[in-house]
Design a protein that fits this description.
The complex is a heterodimer of chains A (114) and B (116).
Chain A (H helix, E strand, L loop, with lengths): L2 E3 L4 E5 L4 E3 L2 E3 L5 E8 L6 E7 L7 E2 L2 E6 L4 E6 L8 E9 L6 E2 L3 E6 L1
Parallel strand pairs in A: 2-12
Antiparallel strand pairs in A: 1-4, 3-9, 5-6, 5-10, 7-8, 8-9, 10-11, 10-12
Chain B lengths: L4 E3 L2 E4 L5 E6 L6 E7 L5 E8 L2 E4 L8 E4 L6 E5 L8 E8 L10 E2 L3 E5 L1
Parallel strand pairs in B: 2-11
Antiparallel strand pairs in B: 1-3, 3-8, 4-5, 4-9, 5-6, 7-8, 9-10, 9-11
The chains are: A mainly beta (114), B mainly beta (116).
Chain lengths: 114, 116
């Protein structure tokens, strides 16, 4: 079974600084996809970024980028120039190409200090 | 383009009552997924449906829980004889097709169920 682990329950960053959130996963599949979702206090799940496992190039979306290390099964999220609106719970998620479900980590609560 | 709609946003039930949660997928999406988020935890998969078919219900509790996605109308997650342990946020997501190669699950705002 696939598992997703986020080892940092809480992180904090100063406004305008950079922060990296960690995620590791375990799978025997070769074809899969990885996601970061953001859940602000409104509890809406918002897609931040996605990465295809077959792509070597790391995905980027504006201030958000990932460091995907396939051999190490690591998928970290880097937030540059942090803003107050980035404060939220961040979830790492895995989706096997052969499956139908997203498997989520337990989340990292990010605080942005002014 | 309207997003995934869920209603009600908040639902309060007493123990033993029934809870019905509704989800309307994004326009053009025919695949619906239900997830449950217990307090202080991540989301856990419950069930995956296409129109009129349950594709994967391996995450659904065996008793009291059922789901449907009729040809017309929203997907319904039904919880019979609710207990306090059912108190959670229930999220619905939709996607246009199951292959994730170009696909993503988009989430609704969730329904927060409180069982008294």
């Amino acid at each position: 079974a696939q598992t997703v682990t986020q080892s940092q329950p809480e992180m904090s960053v100063q406004e305008a600084e950079t922060v990296t959130l960690s995620c590791t996963y375990d799978t025997s599949e070769s074809d899969y996809y990885l996601f970061w979702y953001k859940q602000p206090p409104s509890r809406q799940m918002i897609l931040v970024i996605r990465q295809e496992a077959y792509k070597q190039q790391n995905a980027t979306e504006n201030r958000f980028s990932v460091n995907f290390q396939k051999a190490a099964k690591s998928f970290s999220l880097k937030i540059s120039d942090s803003q107050l609106g980035d404060a939220a719970m961040y979830f790492c998620a895995y989706w096997a190409a052969s499956g139908s479900r997203l498997t989520f980590g337990e989340g990292t609560q990010l605080t942005v200090n002014p | 383009n309207a997003g995934v709609m869920q209603n009600p946003r908040h639902l309060v039930r007493r123990r033993g009552q029934e809870a019905r949660l509704r989800c309307s997928p994004m326009k053009g999406h025919s695949h619906v997924y239900w997830y449950r988020q217990l307090p202080e935890e991540g989301l856990k998969f419950m069930v995956y449906l296409q129109k009129e078919n349950i594709i994967d219900e391996s995450g659904m509790p065996k008793e009291r829980f059922s789901a449907e996605f009729p040809k017309e109308g929203p997907s319904i997650l039904r919880i019979q004889q609710v207990v306090r342990g059912d108190s959670a946020a229930y999220f619905c997501a939709s996607s246009p097709r199951t292959s994730p190669s170009t696909d993503t699950q988009y989430f609704g705002p969730g329904t927060r169920l409180t069982v008294l």
